[in-house]
Amino acid sequence: MYVLAIDEGTTGVRALIFDEQSRCLGRAYEEVESYYPHDGWVEQDAADLWRRTLRVARRALKETSLRASDLASVGVATQRSTVVVWDRRSGEPVCPAIVWQDGRSAHRVAELLEQGIFVTAHASATKLEWILANDDALRRRAEKGELCFGTVDSWLVWNLTGGAAHVTDHSHASCTAMSDPFTGEWHPDILGALRVPEIMLPRVVDTSGVVAETAPDVLGAPVPIAAIAGDQQAAMFAELATEKGSVKVTFGTSAMVDVNTGTDLVLSENGAYPLVLWSRGGERTWCLEGTVVTAGAAVQWLRDGLGIIASPDESGPLAESVEDGGGVWAVPALQGLGTPHMEPSGRAAIGGISRGTTRAHIVRAVLEGIAFRTREALDALLTDVGVERPTRIRVDGGAAANEFLVATLADVLGIEVERPETIQATALGIAYLAGVPVGVWSGDEEIRSNWRSGGVYRPNLSEDQRQQRYESWSRAVDAARLGGLA
């Protein structure tokens, strides 16, 4: 019994096929291109997203010599808050997709908060509002029911089913800031304040459960679509963070820190956002999420922006080639400061550079900066939830393959950091969520018995050393905040 997992990230899309022992039998990947037409704007081509997704899904099947009829189900996990608007009849996008990182509507957040509408700059709400507010023709079409809105999951499921299903799940809906936290449905008062017609929104369904079938010509045979989840929520499930108080960190484009709060919706005083982790059997589980902007993208910037590494894989060994940072520090806020500061206008800062500074020192400082920012975000969330730092956390995501980064995080936090055997936890998590409803796995206990560790990293610094380094780095954050005011 095989499950096809689609993981649509911000910088790339991958498709993986897992068997009932949680083994990955085949995979395919393509980078996704983003565009930056103005300062603070981030866009993608939704039609291109679908083309790339279809290609990697078909290639993964070909690599394993499987046919679509061999698949028990498909699961779809995506980057969550990116906004796609398309024509209901033709299925064609009517404007560029506005990526969750986009800051063009950030000014509206404060105004909406004053009205009692809890929203963040990363949520979908103000981005969709901006699209309709700046194009009267699109607004009229939306009001007539001619247009569909969806986050990327809705867009992919629409195409996978040949336009038969316009749905999203509770984890994605909670990332839009347009759903009612008490009912899980779309909130009419919020939609009214944003002037968003409810007719263009998708139907909200459980995270785990069969909602539709793929169109026969998409993969070669109809396959049940049995799970839809946000990427971070899927990663939480793969990391077995199913108990209240459990923590995981995903090192992707950004580092996303999540704390399971059980069935309780916990509000944050430290720049975190309450989200639905998943809904199963009609019951919703919640988390608090903090964002470290940026993580994996900062390593890509070292490659693409500065040209001081040839590939992200080079960053860890290069950082280890020097004994320390040589006095160099970095706050990798390339697209603003996330939790707990929540300052989209913040800018990255690198300091302490001398004549003796080498590219190895700069790379090391950036990786250390990612670890420090992760501690900053995690501590803020734990304060909100009212729990102590756990003795061990789990990490995943592409940048979790970086041995130096994971070891540094253990030193910075002073606790054990465990990495799973499969660092692409989002794909594994959505496979689990899609496999249980169709009988690939009997339930959580069988999944837990399949989980395999990829190693545990233990801290090597004394508490005094740890605090001294963190406090020294924390003073550098002010430079990043001031950079946004310059």
Please provide a written account of the structure.
The chain has 486 residues and is α/β, with parallel strands linked by helices. The chain has a domain at 2-232: Nucleotidyltransferase, domain 5, CATH 3.30.420.40. 35% of the residues lie in helices and 23% in strands. The chain has helices at 46-64, 107-114, 125-133, 136-143, 152-160, 170-176, 188-194, 216-219, 231-238, 296-304, 315-320, 359-385, 403-413, 425-435, 444-450, 463-483; strands spanning 2-8, 12-18, 24-31, 43-44, 71-78, 84-87, 97-98, 147-150, 167-169, 203-205, 208-213, 224-230, 247-251, 255-262, 273-280, 283-292, 329-331, 349-351, 392-396, 416-420, 453-457. Strand 1 and strand 2 form a beta hairpin. The chain is globular and about 60 Å long.
What descriptors fit this protein?
486 residues; alpha/beta; seven-stranded mixed beta sheet; 21 strands
- The rounded distance between the terminal residues' Cα atoms is 57 Å
Which spans of ≥5 residues are poorly predicted at pLDDT below 50?
none
Give the radius of gyration.
Answer: 21 Å
Strand content: 15-25%
Mean pLDDT, rounded to whole units?
94
Shape: globular
- The CATH topology of the domain at 2-232 corresponds to Nucleotidyltransferase, domain 5
**Largest beta-sheet characterization:** 7 strands, mixed
Strand order of the largest sheet: 15-16-14-13-19-20-21
Total number of β-strand segments?
A: 21
Give the CATH H-level superfamily of the domain at 2-232: ATPase, nucleotide binding domain
CATH class of the domain at 2-232: Alpha Beta
- Return the CATH architecture of the domain at 2-232: 2-Layer Sandwich
Quickly count the helices: 16
The computed structural class is: alpha/beta
Q: What level of helicity do the residues show?
A: 25-40%
